[in-house]
């Protein structure tokens, strides 16, 4: 729960964020934690909570990129497939054995993953801006492309890191911890801090919000809308790249189901976190909170003994809607 | 008159061309078998595609007159189109593993009504009789559960077991019922059952939560080798030593390899082989070339893969 503690202390830093709408997701999360305690006392154990936050890393980091895209009024449905595609290529690069030294190989592979992520994001960005295709359709198209290419690369099976030593070297990046905090949680915090800084403290960040809130006004203010939007997709791609860096060491392999439906989870996390689906308002820390909420809901339902395994999805949907209603009612006050 | 002779000559020529291949037929019977299977969208179907293509090559080498066309389709609707496309090319036999059998019943029936030999694999529609197929080859879902249950009952008679299910669909239920039958009358206790959606990542999550929820777990039955990957990782990360072993299912090369190597966590695997599509293809070819009677229903055993027989089920080149 380290991240939540940090969240609330960090929130006041950005003055415009210090309002009910911004802290509503954290209140919803706090209520869920109480509910979780009643479902199963093990829920509040440090081990479980750190498991849950660690697990939320993939969706949280992808959703950070989605926060940019959606704040600027765009949408990216391709992220789940993109993650599978980039992760598969990264593993194939690691298997190619083109660099003998394992440490150098690992660093090069990580660089490859980030570069590929950015390139995939750039493709999305250019198709929507230069190609002037609705982002929903454009990224639905690339979602199919990235997923299909993943199937093709793996022939439908799994792509696995063959070099055991390389995997042993890489594994701590997901399962290790620094000063008692699991590495993925640190990665979430650092990535979120960078994303928050760029969105709230730089000129580019303000342009992103401006483009999303009123395209015409932004255009007449001299902002290059296409450039701003395209870069949001590149940031999204980079975030997918970072998520890949954490995904690959966990199981050391990708399969055809890798990342399926993660785009929907990422979009849900962004919206639960308080970012407007229509653009113009971006809440970076809220997004992370949203991703943790999604993971916590699943965790509580599994730990509780009184929910039939057939009903879990229905309750998951219901709890997310209730969490949103709680937020809405807080905002009206 | 001149035109007339030309006409006769042309007819004679045409006739000789038409007869020529039928001479060849006498030596090499010409048979076309269409194979329609789901696209490789997860490990098991990837195995189906691999074995269909592997055996198609073997069969064509063995029988020079045989042409095998393998077509993959991502969903039931496109598979219906693929079946039509195959039928247009003039099929003698259709081997089909349907994405969704009930949606494809009519397409299969159309082919069958033309007198084509139909072999149905794995997934059967609600009406599964000689009106829609000549041959039915399938794995044994209840036995997949039962064999796993019996193994657990025999080796760890008072084990506390957690179960990871696939998706809420009939074959998953059959496996669960089989498992319950397998452990019936023993002290094996099921602590929990949850869905892992036949996905490694979801199985990882479910297993992590099981480990939090239950302080002592002896055995994990996850009935699928893909999910076993996530389960093993969750156990390793939690550094829990109470889990004695994990039983998967299907017969993926990674898990069969672990069995072969004597991995303590994966002592056995239960077979639900994607290669069953190849069984159907071989039998179909036998029907045409060897004139052996093959019509009927073939249920393959859910063989228990142990260290001793594992090498028979290991395909190093397979994607699954």
What is the N-to-C succession of helices and strands of chain B?
Answer: HEHEHEHEEHEHEHEHEHEHEE
Poorly predicted runs of chain A: 1-17
Terminal residue distance of chain A? 28 Å
Strand content of chain A: under 5%
Q: Any idea what the CATH architecture of chain A is?
A: Orthogonal Bundle
Please tell me the total number of domains of chain B.
Answer: 2
Global morphology of chain B: elongated
The DSSP helix count of chain A reads: 16
Biggest β-sheet of chain A, characterized?
2 strands, antiparallel
Order of helices and strands of chain A: HHHHHHHEHHEEHHHHEHHH
End-to-end separation of chain B in angstroms reads 69 Å
Helix content of chain A: over 70%
Strand content of chain B: 15-25%
CATH topology description of chain A:
ABC transporter involved in vitamin B12 uptake, BtuC
Main sheet: strand order of chain A: 1-4
Question: Helix/strand-derived class of chain B?
Answer: alpha/beta
Which CATH class of chain A? Mainly Alpha
What is Rg of chain A?
Answer: 20 Å
| CATH architecture descriptor name of the largest domain in chain B | 3-Layer(aba) Sandwich
Beta-strand segment tally of chain A: 4
Secondary structure: helix percent of chain B: 40-55%
